[in-house]
Amino acid sequence: MSVDFELVRRAIGENASLDHPVASLTTYRVGGRARVFVRVDVESQLERVAEVANAHSLEVMVIGRGSNMLVSDRGFPGIVVQLGDFASRTDIDEFTSHGEIGATIVVTAGAAVPLPVLARRTASVGLTGFEWAVGVPGSIGGAVRMNAGGHGSDMSASVVDARLFDWRDGSTRDVDCADLGLRFRGSSIGDDTVVLGARLGLTVGDRAACEATIEEIVRWRRENQPGGQNAGSVFVNPVPGEVLAGRLIDECGLRGFRIGSAMVSTKHANFIQADEGGRAEDVFAVMSHVRRVVADKTGHVMRSEVRLVGFEETV
Ligand SMILES: Cc1cc2nc3c(=O)[nH]c(=O)nc-3n(C[C@H](O)[C@H](O)[C@H](O)COP(=O)(O)OP(=O)(O)OC[C@H]3O[C@@H](n4cnc5c(N)ncnc54)[C@H](O)[C@@H]3O)c2cc1C
To answer: Is 142 in the pocket of ligand 1 (CB under 6 A)?
Structure first.
Protein backbone atom coordinates (compact mmCIF):
# COMPACT_ATOMS: atom_id res chain seq x y z
CA MET A 1 0.00 0.00 0.00
CA SER A 2 1.53 3.33 -0.96
CA VAL A 3 1.16 6.02 1.66
CA ASP A 4 0.32 9.66 0.96
CA PHE A 5 2.70 11.23 3.47
CA GLU A 6 1.41 14.74 2.92
CA LEU A 7 -1.98 13.45 4.05
CA VAL A 8 -0.33 11.79 7.07
CA ARG A 9 1.46 15.02 7.97
CA ARG A 10 -1.74 17.06 7.78
CA ALA A 11 -3.69 14.47 9.78
CA ILE A 12 -1.12 14.58 12.59
CA GLY A 13 -1.12 18.35 12.82
CA GLU A 14 0.66 21.44 11.63
CA ASN A 15 3.65 20.79 13.88
CA ALA A 16 4.49 17.61 11.92
CA SER A 17 7.12 17.78 9.17
CA LEU A 18 8.28 15.52 6.36
CA ASP A 19 11.81 14.22 5.72
CA HIS A 20 13.21 15.62 8.92
CA PRO A 21 16.96 15.01 9.46
CA VAL A 22 17.41 12.65 12.39
CA ALA A 23 21.13 13.30 12.86
CA SER A 24 20.49 16.54 14.74
CA LEU A 25 18.28 14.62 17.20
CA THR A 26 20.98 12.14 18.20
CA THR A 27 24.36 12.35 19.92
CA TYR A 28 25.96 10.38 17.06
CA ARG A 29 24.85 13.17 14.71
CA VAL A 30 24.77 10.77 11.76
CA GLY A 31 21.98 8.97 9.89
CA GLY A 32 19.20 9.74 7.46
CA ARG A 33 15.79 11.36 7.66
CA ALA A 34 12.54 10.56 9.42
CA ARG A 35 9.76 10.30 6.81
CA VAL A 36 7.52 12.10 9.33
CA PHE A 37 8.63 13.92 12.48
CA VAL A 38 6.51 15.47 15.18
CA ARG A 39 7.34 17.07 18.50
CA VAL A 40 4.35 16.40 20.74
CA ASP A 41 3.85 19.24 23.22
CA VAL A 42 0.31 18.31 24.26
CA GLU A 43 -0.33 14.79 25.55
CA SER A 44 -3.65 14.37 23.71
CA GLN A 45 -1.81 14.62 20.37
CA LEU A 46 -0.30 11.19 21.03
CA GLU A 47 -3.72 9.63 20.50
CA ARG A 48 -3.95 11.41 17.15
CA VAL A 49 -0.52 10.12 16.12
CA ALA A 50 -1.53 6.60 17.16
CA GLU A 51 -4.73 6.75 15.11
CA VAL A 52 -2.92 8.02 12.01
CA ALA A 53 -0.08 5.50 12.35
CA ASN A 54 -2.49 2.60 12.77
CA ALA A 55 -4.67 3.76 9.88
CA HIS A 56 -1.66 3.83 7.52
CA SER A 57 0.21 0.87 9.09
CA LEU A 58 3.18 3.13 9.83
CA GLU A 59 5.86 2.34 12.38
CA VAL A 60 6.25 4.88 15.17
CA MET A 61 9.48 5.48 17.05
CA VAL A 62 9.83 7.72 20.06
CA ILE A 63 13.14 9.49 20.44
CA GLY A 64 14.37 10.97 23.69
CA ARG A 65 17.76 12.73 23.70
CA GLY A 66 18.98 10.31 21.01
CA SER A 67 21.95 9.33 23.15
CA ASN A 68 21.53 5.58 22.80
CA MET A 69 20.60 5.30 19.17
CA LEU A 70 22.20 4.77 15.76
CA VAL A 71 19.87 5.57 12.84
CA SER A 72 20.91 4.20 9.45
CA ASP A 73 21.78 6.52 6.58
CA ARG A 74 18.56 5.34 4.92
CA GLY A 75 16.61 6.95 7.75
CA PHE A 76 13.35 5.87 9.35
CA PRO A 77 10.36 5.17 7.06
CA GLY A 78 7.64 5.91 9.63
CA ILE A 79 6.80 8.54 12.24
CA VAL A 80 9.44 9.75 14.72
CA VAL A 81 7.95 11.32 17.82
CA GLN A 82 9.76 13.50 20.31
CA LEU A 83 7.97 14.30 23.55
CA GLY A 84 7.87 18.04 24.29
CA ASP A 85 6.39 20.46 26.82
CA PHE A 86 3.89 18.20 28.55
CA ALA A 87 6.64 15.68 29.38
CA SER A 88 9.30 18.22 30.37
CA ARG A 89 8.13 18.99 33.91
CA THR A 90 9.20 17.80 37.33
CA ASP A 91 7.70 18.64 40.72
CA ILE A 92 11.13 19.01 42.30
CA ASP A 93 10.65 22.77 42.77
CA GLU A 94 7.79 22.01 45.15
CA PHE A 95 10.17 20.17 47.46
CA THR A 96 10.95 22.69 50.17
CA SER A 97 10.85 20.77 53.45
CA HIS A 98 14.10 18.96 54.04
CA GLY A 99 12.39 16.41 56.30
CA GLU A 100 14.34 13.95 58.34
CA ILE A 101 17.61 12.59 56.96
CA GLY A 102 16.84 9.15 55.53
CA ALA A 103 13.16 9.85 54.74
CA THR A 104 11.95 8.84 51.29
CA ILE A 105 10.56 11.56 49.02
CA VAL A 106 8.79 10.73 45.78
CA VAL A 107 9.67 13.00 42.84
CA THR A 108 7.73 13.04 39.56
CA ALA A 109 9.56 13.64 36.27
CA GLY A 110 8.24 13.78 32.71
CA ALA A 111 9.83 11.50 30.14
CA ALA A 112 11.56 14.36 28.30
CA VAL A 113 13.42 15.64 31.37
CA PRO A 114 17.18 15.24 30.81
CA LEU A 115 18.85 12.98 33.41
CA PRO A 116 21.71 15.44 34.17
CA VAL A 117 19.15 18.18 34.87
CA LEU A 118 17.18 16.00 37.28
CA ALA A 119 20.37 14.74 38.94
CA ARG A 120 21.59 18.29 39.59
CA ARG A 121 18.20 19.57 40.73
CA THR A 122 17.58 16.74 43.17
CA ALA A 123 21.10 17.09 44.58
CA SER A 124 20.63 20.84 44.95
CA VAL A 125 17.71 20.27 47.34
CA GLY A 126 19.58 17.57 49.27
CA LEU A 127 17.89 14.51 47.79
CA THR A 128 20.27 11.61 47.31
CA GLY A 129 20.05 8.53 45.09
CA PHE A 130 20.10 10.06 41.62
CA GLU A 131 23.56 11.64 41.50
CA TRP A 132 24.85 8.82 39.25
CA ALA A 133 22.67 10.12 36.40
CA VAL A 134 24.52 13.43 36.03
CA GLY A 135 26.86 11.98 33.40
CA VAL A 136 24.22 10.14 31.35
CA PRO A 137 22.98 12.46 28.59
CA GLY A 138 19.59 10.77 28.09
CA SER A 139 15.99 11.48 29.03
CA ILE A 140 13.92 9.91 31.80
CA GLY A 141 11.86 8.04 29.16
CA GLY A 142 14.87 6.52 27.39
CA ALA A 143 16.51 5.77 30.75
CA VAL A 144 13.49 3.89 32.11
CA ARG A 145 13.22 1.87 28.91
CA MET A 146 16.81 0.67 29.01
CA ASN A 147 17.31 0.84 32.78
CA ALA A 148 20.20 3.25 32.37
CA GLY A 149 22.73 3.22 35.15
CA GLY A 150 26.24 3.89 36.29
CA HIS A 151 28.46 4.35 39.32
CA GLY A 152 26.89 1.35 41.06
CA SER A 153 23.26 2.31 40.55
CA ASP A 154 20.55 2.35 37.92
CA MET A 155 16.97 3.43 37.28
CA SER A 156 15.53 0.35 39.00
CA ALA A 157 16.99 1.60 42.31
CA SER A 158 14.64 4.58 42.39
CA VAL A 159 11.72 4.11 39.97
CA VAL A 160 8.47 3.69 41.91
CA ASP A 161 6.27 3.48 38.84
CA ALA A 162 6.07 4.77 35.27
CA ARG A 163 3.24 6.17 33.20
CA LEU A 164 2.98 4.33 29.87
CA PHE A 165 1.11 5.08 26.65
CA ASP A 166 0.27 2.27 24.23
CA TRP A 167 0.47 3.05 20.48
CA ARG A 168 -1.81 0.13 19.63
CA ASP A 169 -4.93 1.36 21.41
CA GLY A 170 -4.06 4.85 22.65
CA SER A 171 -4.45 3.82 26.31
CA THR A 172 -2.45 5.17 29.27
CA ARG A 173 -1.63 3.31 32.48
CA ASP A 174 0.61 3.51 35.54
CA VAL A 175 2.86 0.48 35.94
CA ASP A 176 4.77 -0.42 39.12
CA CYS A 177 8.53 -0.75 38.86
CA ALA A 178 8.32 -4.49 39.53
CA ASP A 179 6.19 -4.92 36.39
CA LEU A 180 8.49 -2.97 34.03
CA GLY A 181 10.89 -5.90 33.69
CA LEU A 182 13.92 -3.70 34.43
CA ARG A 183 17.14 -5.69 34.06
CA PHE A 184 20.78 -4.86 33.30
CA ARG A 185 20.47 -2.23 30.52
CA GLY A 186 17.05 -3.39 29.43
CA SER A 187 13.37 -3.74 30.31
CA SER A 188 10.19 -5.34 29.03
CA ILE A 189 9.07 -2.00 27.52
CA GLY A 190 8.72 -2.56 23.77
CA ASP A 191 8.34 -0.39 20.68
CA ASP A 192 4.55 -0.23 21.13
CA THR A 193 4.93 1.65 24.41
CA VAL A 194 5.89 5.23 25.26
CA VAL A 195 7.10 6.16 28.73
CA LEU A 196 5.35 9.44 29.56
CA GLY A 197 7.02 9.94 32.93
CA ALA A 198 8.11 8.25 36.12
CA ARG A 199 7.95 8.66 39.88
CA LEU A 200 11.28 8.21 41.63
CA GLY A 201 11.78 7.49 45.33
CA LEU A 202 14.79 9.45 46.61
CA THR A 203 16.22 9.88 50.08
CA VAL A 204 16.63 13.05 52.11
CA GLY A 205 20.36 13.49 52.57
CA ASP A 206 23.01 16.13 53.02
CA ARG A 207 22.98 18.73 50.24
CA ALA A 208 26.72 19.41 50.35
CA ALA A 209 27.46 15.68 50.15
CA CYS A 210 25.06 15.25 47.21
CA GLU A 211 26.68 18.13 45.33
CA ALA A 212 30.19 16.83 46.08
CA THR A 213 29.18 13.43 44.63
CA ILE A 214 27.89 15.19 41.50
CA GLU A 215 31.18 17.04 41.03
CA GLU A 216 33.17 13.84 41.57
CA ILE A 217 31.13 11.99 38.93
CA VAL A 218 31.46 14.84 36.43
CA ARG A 219 35.24 14.86 36.99
CA TRP A 220 35.44 11.06 36.56
CA ARG A 221 33.46 11.21 33.31
CA ARG A 222 35.68 13.95 31.89
CA GLU A 223 38.80 11.96 32.71
CA ASN A 224 37.58 8.57 31.54
CA GLN A 225 35.14 9.09 28.68
CA PRO A 226 35.58 10.76 25.31
CA GLY A 227 33.51 13.71 24.17
CA GLY A 228 32.39 14.16 20.55
CA GLN A 229 29.89 12.16 18.53
CA ASN A 230 29.07 8.84 20.21
CA ALA A 231 26.31 7.05 22.08
CA GLY A 232 28.24 6.03 25.17
CA SER A 233 29.05 2.35 25.68
CA VAL A 234 28.25 0.42 22.52
CA PHE A 235 28.12 -3.13 23.90
CA VAL A 236 26.51 -4.45 27.07
CA ASN A 237 29.05 -5.99 29.45
CA PRO A 238 28.74 -9.77 28.87
CA VAL A 239 28.92 -10.41 32.63
CA PRO A 240 28.15 -7.15 34.52
CA GLY A 241 30.95 -6.23 36.90
CA GLU A 242 33.10 -9.18 35.76
CA VAL A 243 33.48 -9.48 32.00
CA LEU A 244 33.58 -5.94 30.64
CA ALA A 245 33.03 -5.21 26.96
CA GLY A 246 35.62 -2.41 26.93
CA ARG A 247 38.28 -4.69 28.37
CA LEU A 248 37.56 -7.45 25.82
CA ILE A 249 37.77 -4.94 22.94
CA ASP A 250 41.02 -3.62 24.35
CA GLU A 251 42.50 -7.10 24.76
CA CYS A 252 41.73 -7.79 21.10
CA GLY A 253 43.85 -4.76 20.15
CA LEU A 254 40.93 -2.86 18.65
CA ARG A 255 41.43 0.52 20.35
CA GLY A 256 41.70 3.06 17.54
CA PHE A 257 40.38 0.62 14.89
CA ARG A 258 38.82 2.66 12.08
CA ILE A 259 36.51 2.15 9.09
CA GLY A 260 35.82 5.31 7.06
CA SER A 261 34.35 7.98 9.33
CA ALA A 262 34.08 5.85 12.51
CA MET A 263 36.60 4.51 14.97
CA VAL A 264 36.91 2.75 18.32
CA SER A 265 37.76 5.48 20.81
CA THR A 266 41.35 5.60 21.95
CA LYS A 267 40.16 6.83 25.35
CA HIS A 268 37.52 4.16 26.09
CA ALA A 269 37.42 1.00 23.97
CA ASN A 270 33.65 0.47 24.38
CA PHE A 271 32.92 3.83 22.73
CA ILE A 272 32.78 4.21 18.94
CA GLN A 273 33.24 7.75 17.68
CA ALA A 274 31.83 9.20 14.47
CA ASP A 275 33.58 12.01 12.61
CA GLU A 276 31.77 15.25 11.90
CA GLY A 277 29.67 14.67 8.78
CA GLY A 278 30.28 10.91 9.15
CA ARG A 279 28.16 7.93 8.11
CA ALA A 280 26.01 5.64 10.25
CA GLU A 281 27.05 2.73 8.00
CA ASP A 282 30.67 3.24 9.08
CA VAL A 283 29.72 3.17 12.77
CA PHE A 284 27.74 -0.01 12.12
CA ALA A 285 30.64 -1.56 10.20
CA VAL A 286 33.03 -0.86 13.11
CA MET A 287 30.51 -2.38 15.55
CA SER A 288 30.12 -5.52 13.41
CA HIS A 289 33.89 -5.94 13.05
CA VAL A 290 34.54 -5.46 16.77
CA ARG A 291 31.81 -7.89 17.72
CA ARG A 292 33.12 -10.53 15.28
CA VAL A 293 36.76 -10.23 16.37
CA VAL A 294 35.86 -10.34 20.10
CA ALA A 295 33.64 -13.41 19.56
CA ASP A 296 36.37 -15.20 17.55
CA LYS A 297 39.20 -14.38 19.97
CA THR A 298 37.43 -14.60 23.35
CA GLY A 299 34.22 -16.57 22.80
CA HIS A 300 32.12 -13.71 24.24
CA VAL A 301 29.27 -12.69 21.93
CA MET A 302 28.51 -9.08 22.81
CA ARG A 303 25.05 -7.56 22.39
CA SER A 304 24.54 -3.97 21.30
CA GLU A 305 23.49 -1.57 24.04
CA VAL A 306 22.74 1.04 21.36
CA ARG A 307 19.33 0.89 19.67
CA LEU A 308 19.98 0.20 15.97
CA VAL A 309 17.35 1.74 13.70
CA GLY A 310 16.98 0.76 10.06
CA PHE A 311 19.76 -1.82 9.80
CA GLU A 312 18.97 -5.18 8.25
CA GLU A 313 21.39 -7.18 10.38
CA THR A 314 21.56 -6.90 14.13
CA VAL A 315 24.72 -6.56 16.18
C1 LIG B 1 28.65 10.19 26.50
C2 LIG B 1 27.58 9.19 26.85
C3 LIG B 1 27.65 8.52 28.06
C4 LIG B 1 26.67 7.58 28.40
N5 LIG B 1 26.77 6.93 29.59
C6 LIG B 1 25.82 6.04 29.95
C7 LIG B 1 25.89 5.39 31.21
O8 LIG B 1 26.77 5.60 32.02
N9 LIG B 1 24.92 4.51 31.51
C10 LIG B 1 23.90 4.23 30.66
O11 LIG B 1 23.02 3.43 31.00
N12 LIG B 1 23.81 4.83 29.45
C13 LIG B 1 24.73 5.73 29.08
N14 LIG B 1 24.66 6.36 27.87
C15 LIG B 1 23.58 5.99 26.92
C16 LIG B 1 22.31 6.84 27.05
O17 LIG B 1 22.56 8.14 27.51
C18 LIG B 1 21.26 6.17 27.94
O19 LIG B 1 20.96 4.89 27.45
C20 LIG B 1 19.96 6.98 27.99
O21 LIG B 1 19.13 6.40 28.95
C22 LIG B 1 19.21 7.01 26.67
O23 LIG B 1 18.17 7.96 26.78
P24 LIG B 1 17.69 8.79 25.50
O25 LIG B 1 16.58 9.65 25.93
O26 LIG B 1 18.82 9.47 24.86
O27 LIG B 1 17.15 7.60 24.59
P28 LIG B 1 17.18 7.55 23.00
O29 LIG B 1 18.56 7.34 22.52
O30 LIG B 1 16.43 8.70 22.44
O31 LIG B 1 16.35 6.22 22.77
C32 LIG B 1 16.89 4.98 23.18
C33 LIG B 1 15.76 3.92 23.11
O34 LIG B 1 14.75 4.29 24.05
C35 LIG B 1 13.53 4.53 23.37
N36 LIG B 1 12.89 5.67 24.03
C37 LIG B 1 13.34 6.94 24.16
N38 LIG B 1 12.45 7.68 24.84
C39 LIG B 1 11.43 6.85 25.13
C40 LIG B 1 10.20 7.01 25.80
N41 LIG B 1 9.81 8.19 26.32
N42 LIG B 1 9.37 5.93 25.90
C43 LIG B 1 9.72 4.74 25.40
N44 LIG B 1 10.87 4.51 24.75
C45 LIG B 1 11.71 5.57 24.62
C46 LIG B 1 13.87 4.81 21.93
O47 LIG B 1 12.81 4.49 21.05
C48 LIG B 1 15.06 3.88 21.76
O49 LIG B 1 14.64 2.56 21.56
C50 LIG B 1 25.62 7.30 27.50
C51 LIG B 1 25.54 7.99 26.28
C52 LIG B 1 26.52 8.94 25.96
C53 LIG B 1 26.41 9.67 24.65
So the answer is: yes
**What is the DSSP pairing of strand 76-83 with strand 193-204?**
unpaired
Q: What is the pLDDT of residue 93?
A: 74
Looking at the annotation, which residues are catalytic? Answer: 185, 233, 305
**Whole-Å CA distances, 49 to 13, 17, 25, 77, 210:** 9, 13, 19, 15, 41
Q: Rounded CA gap, 71 and 308, in Å?
A: 6
Which tens digits make up the pLDDT trace of 204-242?
999 999 999 999 999 999 999 999 999 999 999 999 889
Please check the confidence at residue 263 and state whether its pLDDT lies above 90. yes
Query: Rounded distance, CA 182 to CA 194, Å?
Result: 15
What is the structure's pLDDT at 240? 85
DSSP string, 48-116: HHHHHHHHTT--EEEESSSTTEEE-TT-EEEEEEEE-GGGS-BSGGG-----STT-EEEEEEETTSBHH
- Break the chain down into helix, strand, coil percent, rounded to 5: 30, 30, 40
What is the CATH number that goes with domain 88-224? 3.30.465.10
In CATH, what class is 245-309?
Answer: alpha beta
Q: Name the fold adopted by 5-86.
A: 3.30.43
Query: Ligand 1 pocket test: which of 26, 46, 145, 237 has the largest number of ligand atoms within 8 Å of its C-beta?
Result: 145
Residue 230 near ligand 1, beta carbon < 6 Å: yes
Sequence spans of domains, the chain: 5-86, 88-224, 245-309
